[in-house]
Amino acid sequence: MYQIKKRRVLSLLAGAAVLLGATTASQAATIRVVLGYYSAATQELFEGMAKDFMEKHPGDEVKIEVIQWDNLQQRLTTDIAGGTAPDIAMIGTRWLVDYVKNDIAEPLDGYMTPEFKAGFIESFLSPSTFDGKMYGLPVAASARAMYYNKDLLAKAGVNEPPANWDGVVDTAKKIKALGGDAYGFALQGKEIETDAYWYYSLWTHGGDIIKDGKSGVASPEAVKALTLYKSMIDEGLTEPDPSGLNRQDIERLFKQGRIGMILTGPWLRGQIKADAPNLNYAIAPIPEGTTKATYGVTDTLMVFNSSPNKELAMKFLTETAFSPKWRIEFSTKEGFLPVMKEEAAAPVFANDPQLKAFTDMLPYARFAPPVANWEQMVDAVIAAVQKVYIGQAQPEASLQEAAATIDGLIQQ
User: How far apart are CA 78 and CA 264, in angstroms?
Assistant: First the structure.
């Protein structure tokens, strides 16, 4: 009888173990993380984060997908429409307002401790905060500055980088006079952030993208800003046909020693170190017109409210992706500014004099306005400046057309 009872107990325990195993297995979850491609390091970095997290959470899985930025928004739009949105996605922060408006983004405040939130540099949180709620965590942050080729400027007889646009034009003319295959000023006119390259001129001339609830892209300041760029193209002070070159193209020309001055972000430092270690360059503020300005940009990691694993997704972000170890490694390898206080205090950032040109510009940073239909507005601006660059339209008429489009989008 004892043996029979013993066998029954063992059988019940075994059954319970099977059930427990099934329950544990059923509780194990997979989170899908879709990211924008920054460099060859992006995939490796996030795979490392995923490995760390999975070691701490046995049975759970983190799948990493990296997509080119030019294709990322369309891919996410397709996934959302098809009901297959990821759990976590990296997005341009300017996209977030539309996701919030359409109830696609999950508010994150309830998943964070006050200590975790307080660890961020506060200015980088505001672009992803709407009506007092946080909908994203800043994964990458940058301001923009002017890189200049010290050797080219010296050959042209220029000992200091120009502080204003008149100085940029004068320096570019002197570089052009040298002859050869170098150009004074790089001007991007193709693909993503073509609009941003014009905003440097717009903002420093005192203009606004949107002002008092209406488009500001056809203001006198805006026309002056675009006329400046067009005149530089016409005088041969930029590379030929800027409308055919994207950001990577003009950065490549700079690394080849063929550009005197280029406006871009801190990531170029890392590329120069790897691709052109002998390039003699330095970094200065964005040239002034009537005021100081730079483009402040954040990219964001967000959680979709359709995710069945929101808590696990947030654990991946708060425990691992935004841990000091991975934040320092990410920002160092990808060439971004720190977004967290402990990260910023690390010697690799605190003792880097080149970063000073970017951090000094942060008080003057302008961000893309947090408005709905932003990407359509960007398309209108890009179309307007490209028409001017290739000589199909005059600045004022082209910008008035863009302003009308933007006003219509604001009213929707």
Answer: 31
The pTM (predicted TM-score) of the whole model is 0.77
CA distance 387 to 395: 9
The mean pLDDT of the chain is 91
Pairing of strands 145-149, 214-215: unpaired
* Cβ-Cβ contacts under 8 Å for 278 (sequence gap 6 or more): none
Distance CA 203, CA 221 (A): 9
Per-residue DSSP letter, 5? H
Measure the CA–CA gap between 64 and 80, rounded to whole angstroms: 18
CA dihedral (131, 134, 138, 139) positive or negative: negative
The residues near 336 (Cβ < 8 Å, ≥ 6 apart) are 140, 141, 142, 265, 266, 267, 330
Q: Identify the CA nearest to 53 among candidates 311, 326, 319.
A: 319
- Calculate mean pLDDT across residues 377-404: 98
Q: C-alpha distances in angstroms, 211 versus 97, 217, 240, 406?
A: 18, 9, 33, 12
* CB-facing half-sphere around the CA of 237: CA atoms within 13 A: 21
Render pLDDT for 235-276 as a digit per residue (tens, 0 to 9): 999 999 999 999 999 999 999 999 999 999 998 998 999 899
Nearest of 270, 202, 325, 65 to residue 76 by alpha carbon = 65
Amino acid at site 211: K
Going by their DSSP bridges, the two strands 30-36 and 61-67 should be labelled as parallel
Contact predicate 305/96, CB 8 Å: no
DSSP label at residue 257: T
Rounded Cα–Cα distance for residues 351 and 253 (Å): 29
Q: How far is Cα 104 from Cα 340, in angstroms, rounded to an integer?
A: 26
Query: Distance between CA 33 and CA 385 in Å, rounded?
Result: 35
Alpha carbon distance 388, 250 (integer Å): 19
- What is the pLDDT, as a whole number, of residue 362? 83
CA torsion angle 272 276 280 283 (round to 10): -10
Residues 115-137 pLDDT 10s: 999 999 988 898 999 999 999 99
Sign of torsion over alpha carbons 372, 378, 383, 384: positive
